[in-house]
Amino acid sequence: MQLTDLQRDALSELLNMGFARTAASLSELTGYRVLLEVPQVSIHPIEELSDKLACFVEGEIATVQQIFTGRVSGNALLLLNYDGALMLTDLVTPQQHHRGDRLDSSAAEVLTEIGNILLNACLSVFGNLLQMQISFSVPRLHLDAVDGLLHSLNIGYEEMRYAMVVYTAFRMEDDSVTGYLVMVLSVVSLENLLEAVDNWAHLVETGPEG
């Protein structure tokens, strides 16, 4: 399934609003200015997701996963490679000096909260602007390789699912952490999302009286 240029631009704008809210929250949390690159959006069949992500993340990854339900439902995931996850937790809590080659329980808790902030900000923007009620589960942190992560998703029981992959990077104090937001959706949920995006883009383009 291919996005139209209008859908891609609208999704990027919506996600940019969510990431801007996230940057403000992280800045307040850390005391540092946080910059987020403009998100790039693409949609892939779920069976192509492993190859897509393998181009950018290798080995073990840290994933914050949150299930959401409503007119659009699915799994939202924040993916970071392991070194990126360590760097991000160090940036957020430098006073703890926990940099090592493994995430300890304190760092895991911080990373889960960062994922919660990011995922909630993006999904809330979608819900508010697209006028869709969305409920969230408690976020969970998983440490696994990409293939293991995909096997852990409950993706094969009904209909083919798609993954909306959003690439962005966090920048704080000259450090950069590259991450992905992945939304795994059923066909129906993806159709509902794109229909709402089209309606929103039309309203933005023509105004409420258009």
Short description:
It is built from 6 helices and 8 strands.
Please characterize this protein's 3D structure.
It is a single chain. 45% of the residues lie in helices and 29% in strands. By secondary structure, it is an alpha+beta fold. The protein has one domain (5-206): Chemotaxis protein chec (3-Layer(aba) Sandwich). Strands 1, 2, 3, 4, 5, 6, 7 and 8 form an 8-stranded antiparallel β-sheet that branches. Strand 7 (161-172) and strand 8 form a beta hairpin. Helix 1 packs across helix 4 (105-129) and helix 3 crosses helix 4 (105-129). The radius of gyration is 17 Å and the shape is globular.
Protein structure class: alpha+beta
Tally the structural domains.
Answer: 1
The CATH architecture classification is 3-Layer(aba) Sandwich
- Major sheet: size, sense and barrel closure? 8 strands, antiparallel
Average predicted confidence as pLDDT? 80
Question: What are the secondary-structure elements, in order, as H or E?
Answer: HEEHEEHHEEHEEH
**Helix content estimate:** 40-55%
Give the overall silhouette: globular
Could you please say which CATH topology applies here?
Answer: Chemotaxis protein chec
Amino- and carboxy-terminal Cα gap: 29 Å
Quickly list its features.
about 210 residues, Chemotaxis protein chec, single chain, 6 helices, 8-stranded antiparallel β-sheet, about 30% strand, alpha+beta
Helix-strand layout with pairing:
Elements (H helix, E strand, L loop, with lengths): L4 H26 L4 E2 L3 E6 L3 H6 L5 E11 L3 E8 H11 L12 H25 L4 E3 L3 E6 H7 L8 E12 L2 E12 H20 L4
Antiparallel strand pairs: 1-7, 2-7, 3-4, 3-5, 3-6, 4-8, 7-8
